[in-house]
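Researcher: I'd like a candidate sequence for this fold, 1103 residues long. If you have to choose between options at a position, lean toward the conservative one.
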């Protein structure tokens, strides 16, 4: 809707309000979606008119529009549910649970179960989270405060919360002005005209009742243009529809035919696909629910699509005017991947392939027996393989269960990566779509199972309608469906995770498109300017196009061949192609002219009869490839004749399937013997050779570690470990680029190590799965690879107006290893671990963040330690600091949450340890650590780190002068270990092993101690000469940080002051660190205490 039309709605709203049409005012507010009346909304909430509350909201947003909308509807329905329980109206509560809250179960099943369990309580306030629930009135008021914040933060309500400033009765004034102009046009204007109607233009009639033509010299009219001297407001274009686009153009496809006129079939060489143009204006699409927020934002759902598509036509016409005729010179075939580089044995017939969008050598494969596999084609290793199985048969529909019982054989029809490569989708020949999350090293985890269609699911594709990652499916039931993926949840009181937290759930259906008369064979989503749409093809040869609305298809054309056809755009999105085969075996590869809806070019070179449907792909905005006649045939996009072909050294089926990687340097092709051939060009060959050069073996080093014998008290050498040499590709040493390893952390899957250097740059090393390392997890005896995306970008923290070398860096990793939150004195940055791209930044300094820890029960909440000694409890969902904790006098150096005690423990550079209650963020206890005699004054300060034991009660406290264990429930010290010979220097870092049975401690002289996790007594000492190459400056190298493997308790990694990273673990023949604790290797002070237990559940343990 145009801006003037929008303003007219506001004028009408003002008029209705002045005339006291109260119900009509709010109906128009809701129906237009232009103005959200917060006062009216509050009145309805406070009076408990829940149906009206949701009806009014529906004019501005839907439940699944975005995270804020989801949270708004959840809070309303939860309040309605709690009020029913409070009234002991169980029947009503069950009805709300099933009808209103059930929608959230598909996103967070645990949340829904927790809500359901409230039915079993006599008083829901027995639930700890709801214990502070007061009466109905106060609960509604509290909820309103939260709703107002969510509405104000929701981009769909932007510019809709304020009514424009208008003079009183503005619409009446405009009407009066119009009547005055009309009156001046009268031949004989009367002094007091009688205005009887607004339905027609006013005119003063002559006394005899006839209307005379105005004389030529009439001074009132003579100076005005003839033929509509005072045109209506609509003539200025915003109120009057412009001429429609041609029904045969792409704009016409989108704007015209809800009931499209049939068009004749087209032979391959036809010049046009369309019939005669339709001169009748197509109906305007339904008014948009949400107009664009700004000029650059995409309005995917705008029903003003007709207007927007008209704007896109000049762009398309410009493209069409370019001469793509065969007179242009053909591209060189040397750029095509035709050289055989690898042969992979899948073991069953390959049905679908897709290269990873970021990791160019990772290939996803689906087969005719329902298997999927992921290959690293560089090393020819199969990283993972999954056979088909139903994950949860109890939630599957009866038709699907019956189909599986009748015929349990299931094939893969389509496999596809999501745009960033963190998810993959699999479409099966019976009902189901599986979504997996993909993690570094080939770790594949079930993500969501969707009972998508009745019968076969023939194709899938990923898209971003409403800026939400979604998967599009199509199937034998003649429908296309769009399922939202990027809907995020956490707990009952906060079900919607903000964009800064990345535990995605999926499975909510957003759209169902119906209109095909046969099984839908393929889908192709795309966007032009700010219009998103989907092409679909059916097995009857029909092509349809759909906007993301419920207004039906905009296209009904016949594809060449009238049978199975797939469509694809060139990589830059400017050129549209389709490839299909008729039932008689005749194949067609064509380019479409979108602006005219006609075939632009038909490519020749196919054999007369194909036994299977020919598959094709595009690459580099230059080439097309298709499998035909036991060959791979290539075309220049601008030339209809075959450019070249290859048989890939033989063994191809009659119609091989094929897939390019993103850069077009590799081409995967299926073979007759259930295998895959990888073809490459010169760039692809270099890529594969680079991979080979990285895969070297690291040798084991025998470590001569010193421990003190408990029996003799004499220091003697004992062989205790077998760490690898330095990680190749580690951050440069200080002599080259002044960077030290400031933070170090293993990924939660244990297949990679992430380091943050003092120059604010991150480095990621990952281990590959191979014959020597079947698990693919980190190992000291196998060298990893320094990994980064093909784009070559680095993960670099914001360092604006800061010196990263002087900053205190901090880092935290998401549970699925997909995202990392980090800071180096500047803003906190959120990075995508697959692409290394910055997703968002927040909390600019000052003060700067010095430590990060996720709330163990609510991923929306992050505790952020600051350099000004405060701790900020930050809610990423509403982008707001909920609490600011004050108690330290210097910067925060450690944070740790305890699930068992429901507390947050903080430590600072002031050597203070403080316990905070999570419920109200009140301070519970404070303790200054005791500095051992001779190690400094009792008031000495220094960075203090904290980490919970796995049982969530015992707390490891690390200070340069000591290690100590506290009972966090009382903040009483249980153990204290003070370094002494041979540990003669100060502590530089320490951390529990993953099972809390050991403590790994680094010292400023370069030595490493392995302590017993219970008594803190040393088990062994690793001398610095064991892992540091001796040379100039080696005496000054020591561990700054220590990271422990998440599942291998005997493995740890050291981040050193020279910028290198070392991984250590014992020899396989030893199987442990040392022979047992020695009481002579340091002073241990024991304090009687009740049994102490504790756990570390934050994303990042204090190091």
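Model: Candidate sequence:
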């Amino acid at each position: 809707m145009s801006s003037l039309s929008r303003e007219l709605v506001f004028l009408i709203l003002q008029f209705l309000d002045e005339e006291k049409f109260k119900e009509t005012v709010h109906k128009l507010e809701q129906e237009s979606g232009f103005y959200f009346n917060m006062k009216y909304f509050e009145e309805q909430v406070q009076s408990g008119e829940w149906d009206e509350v949701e009806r009014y909201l529906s004019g501005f947003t839907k439940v699944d529009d975005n995270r804020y909308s989801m949270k708004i509807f959840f809070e309303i329905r939860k309040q309605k549910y709690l009020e029913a329980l409070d009234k002991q109206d169980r029947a009503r509560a069950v009805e709300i649970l099933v009808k209103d809250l059930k929608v959230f179960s598909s996103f967070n099943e645990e949340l829904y179960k927790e809500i359901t369990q409230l039915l079993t309580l006599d008083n829901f306030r027995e639930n700890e989270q709801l214990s502070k629930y007061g009466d109905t009135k106060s609960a509604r008021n509290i909820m309103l405060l939260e709703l107002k914040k969510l509405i104000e933060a929701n981009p769909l309500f932007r510019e809709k919360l304020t009514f424009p400033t208008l003079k009183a009765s503005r619409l009446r004034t405009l009407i009066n002005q119009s009547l005055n102009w009309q009156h001046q046009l009268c031949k004989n204007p009367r002094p007091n005209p009688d205005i009887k109607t607004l339905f027609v233009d006013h005119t003063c009639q002559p006394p005899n009742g006839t209307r005379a033509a105005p004389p030529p010299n009439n001074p009132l009219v003579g100076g005005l243009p003839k033929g509509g001297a005072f045109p209506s407001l609509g003539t200025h274009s915003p109120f009057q529809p412009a001429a429609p686009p041609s029904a045969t153009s792409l704009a016409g496809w989108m704007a015209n035919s809800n009931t499209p006129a049939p068009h004749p079939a087209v032979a391959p060489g036809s010049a046009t696909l369309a019939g005669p143009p339709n001169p009748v204006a197509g109906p305007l699409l339904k008014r948009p629910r949400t107009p664009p927020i700004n000029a650059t934002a995409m309005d995917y759902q705008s029903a003003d699509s007709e207007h927007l598509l008209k704007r896109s036509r000049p762009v398309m016409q410009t493209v069409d005017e370019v001469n793509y005729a065969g007179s242009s010179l053909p591209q060189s075939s040397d750029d095509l991947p035709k050289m055989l580089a690898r042969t992979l044995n899948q073991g069953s017939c390959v049905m679908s392939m897709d290269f990873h969008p970021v990791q160019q050598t990772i290939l996803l494969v689906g087969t005719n027996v329902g298997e999927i596999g992921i290959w690293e084609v560089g090393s020819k290793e199969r990283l993972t393989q999954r056979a088909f199985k139903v994950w949860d048969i109890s939630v599957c529909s009866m038709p699907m269960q019956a189909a599986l019982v009748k015929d349990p054989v299931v094939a893969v029809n389509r496999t596809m990566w999501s745009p960033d490569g963190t998810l993959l989708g699999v479409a099966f020949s019976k009902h189901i779509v599986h979504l997996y999350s993909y993690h570094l090293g080939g770790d594949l985890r079930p993500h969501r199972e969707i009972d998508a269609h009745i019968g076969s699911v023939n194709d899938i594709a990923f898209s971003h309608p409403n800026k939400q990652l979604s998967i599009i499916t199509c199937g034998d039931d003649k429908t296309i469906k769009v399922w939202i993926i990027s809907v995020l949840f956490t707990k009952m009181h906060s079900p919607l995770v903000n964009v800064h937290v990345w535990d995605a759930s999926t499975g909510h259906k957003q759209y169902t498109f119906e209109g095909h008369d046969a099984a839908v064979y393929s889908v192709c989503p795309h966007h032009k300017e700010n219009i998103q749409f989907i092409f679909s093809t059916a097995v009857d040869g029909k092509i349809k196009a759909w906007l993301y609305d419920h207004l039906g298809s905009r296209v009904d054309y016949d594809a060449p061949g009238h049978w199975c056809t797939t469509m694809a755009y060139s990589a830059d999105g400017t050129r549209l192609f389709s490839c299909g085969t008729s039932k008689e075996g005749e194949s067609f590869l064509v380019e479409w002219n979108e602006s005219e809806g006609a075939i632009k070019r038909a490519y020749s070179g196919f054999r007369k009869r194909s036994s299977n449907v020919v598959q094709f792909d595009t690459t580099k905005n230059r080439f097309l490839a298709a499998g035909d006649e036991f060959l791979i045939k290539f075309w220049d996009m601008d030339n209809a004749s075959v450019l070249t072909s290859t048989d890939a050294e033989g063994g191809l089926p009659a119609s091989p399937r094929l897939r390019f990687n993103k850069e077009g340097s590799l081409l995967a092709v299926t073979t007759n013997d259930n295998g895959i051939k990888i073809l490459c060009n010169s760039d692809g060959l270099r890529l594969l050779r680079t991979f080979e050069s990285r895969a070297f073996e690291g040798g084991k080093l025998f470590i001569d570690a010193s421990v003190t014998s408990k029996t003799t008290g004499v220091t003697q050498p004992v062989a205790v470990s077998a760490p690898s040499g330095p990680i190749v590709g580690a951050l440069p040493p200080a002599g080259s680029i002044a960077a030290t390893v400031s933070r170090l952390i293993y990924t939660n899957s244990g297949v990679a190590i992430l380091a943050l250097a003092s120059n604010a740059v991150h480095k990621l090393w990952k281990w590959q799965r191979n014959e020597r390392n079947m698990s693919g997890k980190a190992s000291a005896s196998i060298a990893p690879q320094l990994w980064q995306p093909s784009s070559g970008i680095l993960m670099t923290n914001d360092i604006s107006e800061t010196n990263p070398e002087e900053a205190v860096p901090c880092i935290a990793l998401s549970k699925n290893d997909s995202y990392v939150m980090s800071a180096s004195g500047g803003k906190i940055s959120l990075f995508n671990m697959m692409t290394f791209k910055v997703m968002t930044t927040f909390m600019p300094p000052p003060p700067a963040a010095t430590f990060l820890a996720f709330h163990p029960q609510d991923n929306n909440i992050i505790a952020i330690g600051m350099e000004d000694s405060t701790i900020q409890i930050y809610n990423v969902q509403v982008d707001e600091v909920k609490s600011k904790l004050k108690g330290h006098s210097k910067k925060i150096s450690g944070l740790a949450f305890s699930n068992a005690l429901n507390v947050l423990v903080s430590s600072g550079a002031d050597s203070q340890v403080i316990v905070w209650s999570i419920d109200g963020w009140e301070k519970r206890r404070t303790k200054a650590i005791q500095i051992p005699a001779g190690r400094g004054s009792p008031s000495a300060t220094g960075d203090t780190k904290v980490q919970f034991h796995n049982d969530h009660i015992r707390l490891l406290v690390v200070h340069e002068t000591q290690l100590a264990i506290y009972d966090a429930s009382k903040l009483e010290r249980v153990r204290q270990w003070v370094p002494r010979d041979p540990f003669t220097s100060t502590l530089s870092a320490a951390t529990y092993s993953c099972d809390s049975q050991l403590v790994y401690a680094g010292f400023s002289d370069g030595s490493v101690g392995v302590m017993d996790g219970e008594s803190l007594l040393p088990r062994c000492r690793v001398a610095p000469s064991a892992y540091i190459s001796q040379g100039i400056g080696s005496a000054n190298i020591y561990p700054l940080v220590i990271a422990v493997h998440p599942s291998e308790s005997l493995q740890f990694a050291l981040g050193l002051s020279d910028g290198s990273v070392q991984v250590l673990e014992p020899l396989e023949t030893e199987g442990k660190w040392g022979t047992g604790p020695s009481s002579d290797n340091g002073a241990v002070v024991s304090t009687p205490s009740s049994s102490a237990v504790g756990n570390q559940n934050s994303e990042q343990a204090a190091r």
